[in-house]
Amino acid sequence: MKSSLNRPLNNSDRKGVEILSIGTELLLGNIVNTNAQWISEQLSSLGLNHFRQSTVGDNTERIINIVQEIAYRSNLLITTGGLGPTPDDLTTEAIAKSFNVPLFERESLWEKLKQKLSNSVLDDDSCLRKQCFFPKDAQIINNPRGTAPGMIWEPIRGFTILSFPGVPSELKEMWKESAEDFIKKNFSDDYIFFSNTLKFSGIGESTIAEKIDNLLSLQNPTIAPYANLGEVKLRITAKAKNKSEAIKLIKPLKEKLSQEFPKYLFGENDDSLPSVLIQELKKREESVVFAESCTGGLLSSSITSISGSSQVFKGSIISYSNVLKKSLLNISDAQLNKYGAVSKEVAETMAINVKEKLSADWAISISGIAGPKGGSKEKPVGLVYISIAGPNHYISNLKKIFNPLRTRTEIQRLSVNVCLNSLRLILLSKSK
Fold first, then answer.
1. Strand arrangement, sheet containing 313-318
2. How far is residue 275's CA from residue 194's CA, in Å, rounded to a whole number?
3. Left (φ > 0), alpha (ψ -120 to 50) or beta: where does 13 sit?
4. Choosing a second label site near 53 at 20 to 30 A (CA), which of 269, 291, 292, 342?
5. Are strands 76-80 and 50-56 parallel, antiparallel or unpaired?
6. Which residue(s) pair with 150 in the sheet?
7. What is the C-alpha to C-alpha distance for residues 18 and 14, in angstroms, rounded to an integer?
8. Model-level pTM?
């Protein structure tokens, strides 16, 4: 059959890869589109140019329109979502209609589906059967984790479509089992992109960018700064024949950045402040405890989210009220009345007493005003006192005033980052 496209295609003008995510739930914000991010990473690792990402709802006409648009400008389209058995799963049908091609049932898929769901009673008119219809010349991508197969299809010369379900675990399994080798063989130019991400704390993105301005214009490797709350990342990406060559290209830049920001660079790739701090405490065979007020357990949660934290973290006291500060941490009425719960003096006593009470090497205490209410002229929203107690009567006190326009959650999270990073820096400055 003839394509329903209205103008002739010039194969030489069509290049690059695009990702099309299909699902009204994505447009409504009901779920986060993690699939597009994951596919992007896989494409980069294969050395493919990735030009655009699009999202469309469960609407046949809109899917047809955007598939036809993409067919004019790209040579590879990867879709996720809309392959299930429900009426709003329209992807395969819409893609076929984009090129005026009928669907045919694959009887073998139906038989495999019945075997896969042997504990269920499947009638021949089951809605699941729609998942077995594909264009006649499409190659099927097996779905080992679910019921909806995908396809590899070249509806017109020079343009290929790979379709996957929207369930992330199914997509990833299918990609590794079938799609990766197909893309390598048919689209890769024998180069890969490999990235190494360096992570910084205690310094702003603009400050880093200003200091490395001469490096930001490099072509290979490239450096891209981006920031999360309380953290800055520098992603170094190299294009090379293989991973080993890429690592060699990246290494000098990593060394240069490490020398430029020795105090602020805390890790790379999957490292986090909690994981780095845990590793350092493990090496020193030391323990840590917390006394939390304004963070309400968030500091403790950040540590216990890391596997192996039990080797260094003994526990915490969440003394949100003054009553518990007095009964559990022995903060006196006189100190509370004179200085207030949010003060250097109270935070210091909290750290000293929790360290002694829970028998740890190190203790961090935190007390502050996370807002949005509760501040005053003398003690505004965003004011946080942090105290760290260590061996040999060591004490470090820190006062932070975060932007009061930040949300309560942001102030709490930033406070946690400062706590963890402050202890990290103290440990680095003290030999064991």
1. 313-318, 288-292, 362-368, 383-390, 394-401
2. 23
3. alpha
4. 269
5. unpaired
6. 141
7. 11
8. 0.76
